[in-house]
Amino acid sequence: MKRRDLLSMIAAATGTAFVGSNVLAYTVMPIQDSKDSGYSNDEVAFFNEVGEIIIPRTDSPGAKDANVGSIMSILLADCYSPVQQKAVKSGIESLKSKAKTRYAKDFLLLTHEQRTALLSSIDEEADMQNKKTVFANSSSNEKELVLPHYFTIIKQLVLFSFFSSEVGATKVLRYEAIPGSYDGDLPYKKGDKAWAT
Prior knowledge:
By secondary structure, the chain is an all-alpha fold. The chain is built from 7 helices and no strands. Helices cover 54% and strands 0% of the residues.
């Protein structure tokens, strides 16, 4: 898969509109071995723990059930630039440092409530930074590549990895491997699952 295609699909899956584009169609991704990704087992486990706060297990599977950490490590290694990978790695260290500063504990030793509070505050920080970046770029005549906040990248990867996994596509969404023809007036009842095709 080409990097540009993946980034377009992640943007589409996480809220950016691509009207009439093929990037909205994706297939279920099998979980692959992440040994060659350059991310350690501890980093993969860390991604899973962060993912579980973003998509927790309820009456449906959560991020750890889909092993999003493994998928994220492969996508980061294969499809993101070294600059983006470095931003995520330094972001992970920043997140761990904030956990120690705020709670005097390692992130993995925090309670679910503490993890949620910490990641919520980082998510707010990311939203503010991303809004400032968009405003600064829109008022400038020069187009320059500005990285989004590291947590935005992590969150998008968690969402994309989960909903394109077999667990996310078949147990949370309604999955049909070979969809039928387009129907713009498909009946919908409150509580129906979204489609994964």
